Amino acid sequence: MFHFKEVKYKNILNIEYLVIPGKKVTSIIGESGSGKTTLLRHLNKLISYDEGEILYKNHSLREIDSMELRRKVIMLPQTPAIFNGTIKDNLLIGLKFSDKSMVEDVELLRVLQLVHLNKTLTEDAEKLSGGEKQRLGLGRVLLMNPEVSLLDEPSSALDEETENLIIEKIVQFSRKQQKTLVMVTHSKKIAEAYSDFIVEIKEGKVVHQRGK
Ligand SMILES: Nc1ncnc2c1ncn2[C@@H]1O[C@H](COP(=O)(O)OP(=O)(O)OP(=O)(O)O)[C@@H](O)[C@H]1O
Predict the structure, then answer these.
(1) How does pLDDT run across 68-83, given as a tens digit for each residue?
(2) Which terminus of the chain, N or C, has fewer Cβ atoms within 10 Å?
(3) Cα separation, 93 vs 5, whole angstroms
(4) Whose CA is nearest to atom 18 of ligand 1?
């Protein structure tokens, strides 16, 4: 789905060749500062490479309109933006952005359950803890159900048990819907357990890419 050829970005990324497969779960692993987030940001056109080429479905990212791309490829940053308002407002805002039709409360509650957020829809989102805000952000992306989800350390603020539960559900959901999931994770264990494809980065270079 994404092809990298001789891609250079500042002195941060230098990727000779990388393929991220469609309709699969890919984990990006590597030490802190190795360039994982920078790679993910490229896939969402939040930054642009200096040299080489990144193709999305065989089209250069340079030629794809950023807003158009971001309707299909949604990135959840490590610390998702939470807006003034209720949990419901914060879930629905993604749908408004992507021009998708609105959904019933019962569907919103199902998503909250999926991300283990045991709250009511009318609660003030600002009052949630860091980990709860992260899960709300995940819920927002799940509801949008994009073609490609880019998750940057989606479970960094969670304890190990909750982390496993949530990643398992997200992966199941993505597989069932035949969507593409790319997640950055600090945990080799999570990468091994849940992904079809693992990319390891070291100092901006891909040192391993392998299917399982
Ligand atoms: N906007 C920027 N300008 C200059 N350098 C940057 C910028 N963003 C990131 N970097 C640098 O690029 C390198 C890679 O950063 P990146 O955030 O991609 O790493 P990471 O692997 O995601 O790290 P972590 O696991 O700690 O989140 C780091 O050395 C970082 O300091």
Answers:
(1) 999 999 999 999 999 9
(2) C
(3) 35
(4) 35
- Total domains in the fold of the chain: 1
Per DSSP, which regions of 2-134 are E strands?
A: 2-9, 13-20, 25-30, 51-56, 59-60, 73-76
Q: Is the pLDDT of residue 100 over 80?
A: no
Residue pair 166/138 in contact (Cβ under 8 Å)? The answer is yes
ipTM: 0.95
pTM of the shown model: 0.95
Tens-place pLDDT, residues 2-17: 999 999 999 999 999 9
- For 115, the domain range is 2-211
Check residue 170 and give its pLDDT.
92
Q: What is the CATH number of the domain that holds 195?
A: 3.40.50.300
What is the CA(32)–ligand 1 centre distance, in A?
Answer: 8
Distance 36 CA to ligand 1 centre (A): 8
Average the pLDDT over 132-137 and give the result: 94
Tell me which residue has tokens 């799940």: 142
Instruction: Report the pocket of ligand 1 as residue ranges, CB < 6 Å.
Output: 12, 30, 32-38
> Which of 9, 11, 12, 47 is the pocket-test mutation for ligand 1 (most atoms within 8 Å of CB)?
12
- Average pLDDT value for residue range 176-196: 95
Residue 95, sorted as left (phi over 0), alpha (psi -120 to 50) or beta, turns out to be alpha
- Closest residue by Cα to atom 28, ligand 1, is 33
